[in-house]
């Protein structure tokens, strides 16, 4: 009897949906109702299998498109279709936490989580004291649901090694679609046309800097899959092919900051593999810092004389990083950093409010620091720094609390690397650390954590390290699940 009732309900709902859709389509021309079945399916998956729903979100993140790509005059922006699904996952996971459904509360007590609480709490406080409260509350809410889904929910699920691999591949595979799309567009214009490299990845990415940053984060992970001999030969060979494609895409991104970040991560990889002592690394770093500081005048003078503009040639392109004379991208970045520092000087404790930099920095520009790409309209990006941006928007506590997340994540990562015994887990953990390191370095020159694409990787990688740290001793995650 229950089956008959269930079938009857399904048929009635289906008929009503068809009739309603037909009426709206014929009378009003409204076609959006066609997406309702997909939304209902997504809700069903979210309630029944939240793990698979998270994988669906991660798969859609690289393919997401900002809402303003369709409606440029809207005040609210979302990433479609990923962010509405993120909000759904956020609400369902909160319900599960309230109901205490098999949640490992060790995650919530972890030092990285505590650093996140402090940072998030201060973002909320400075949103209340913001010069633009509506903008700041939107920023807080976006950061909140990104953290709940990509950090807390992910950490809960990533105590299973197999889920970690699924999460990573769920991001890597769809990003391949974006790579092929970008290269095809780039080829049609001219593969080494550097100007085209700035926009051919649109609308999936705003520009080549965010595109390059994401590629840099993922490359160490794919390289880890390639060298992991515990995986099947076919998987390793496929990983090598994918790694080659990613490296080609990375080179063609012409993102100097991304190249520097990946080179830095490569240096850390060599230090770890050669087991160079920390005190030796610190000694070398101090020596380099001393030499740089003692020759600061000469360095600045030489940078001032460097007129090498960005180029299709790798060596010349890297050389242009230090061009602070006529490379507008570099000079404009210095302009934004100086504005952030001046804004911090005026409001050092609470800042101007999360997400407000782009609307408030214009009056803090100095005429001789402006470039042809400077603007007074607040419509061309942010502070270009994950560290100076919070400094101007949330004061010194905002910046220090974000630095605390970075430091605690690195401490946790290297602690886990020493803790795990199996080779495939060491490869995975080191790959995640190196991926995060690329963003920590890239974050000096750009900031993308307000986007779903960067958040899914940044907080996801962090969550994976925390999950392994919590789970390794109790369930021997590295020994029981090799594939």
Order of helices and strands: HHHEEHHHHHHHHHHHHHHHHH
Indicate the overall shape.
Answer: globular
| Overall average residue pLDDT | 83
Which stretches are poorly predicted, pLDDT < 50 over at least 5 residues?
303-309, 320-324, 474-483
Helix coverage percent: 55-70%
- For this structure, the quaternary state is single chain
Describe this structure in words.
With 483 residues, the chain is mostly helical. Helices cover 70% and strands 1% of the residues. Helix 9 runs antiparallel to helix 18 (423-442) and helix 9 (208-227) runs parallel beside helix 19 (452-475).
List keywords for this structure.
20 helices, two-stranded antiparallel ribbon, disordered C terminus, mainly alpha, 483 residues, globular
Task: Sum this structure up briefly.
70% of the residues lie in helices and 1% in strands.
Helix and strand layout, with pairings?
Layout: H1 2-27, H2 36-48, H3 50-60, E1 65-66, E2 79-80, H4 82-98, H5 106-109, H6 111-128, H7 133-157, H8 161-189, H9 208-227, H10 233-252, H11 256-273, H12 278-294, H13 296-305, H14 314-319, H15 328-346, H16 357-360, H17 388-419, H18 423-442, H19 452-475, H20 477-480
Antiparallel strand pairs: 1-2
Helix pairs in contact: 2-3, 2-4, 3-4, 3-8, 4-7, 6-7, 6-17, 7-19, 8-10, 9-10, 9-11, 9-18, 9-19, 11-18, 15-17, 17-18, 17-19, 18-19
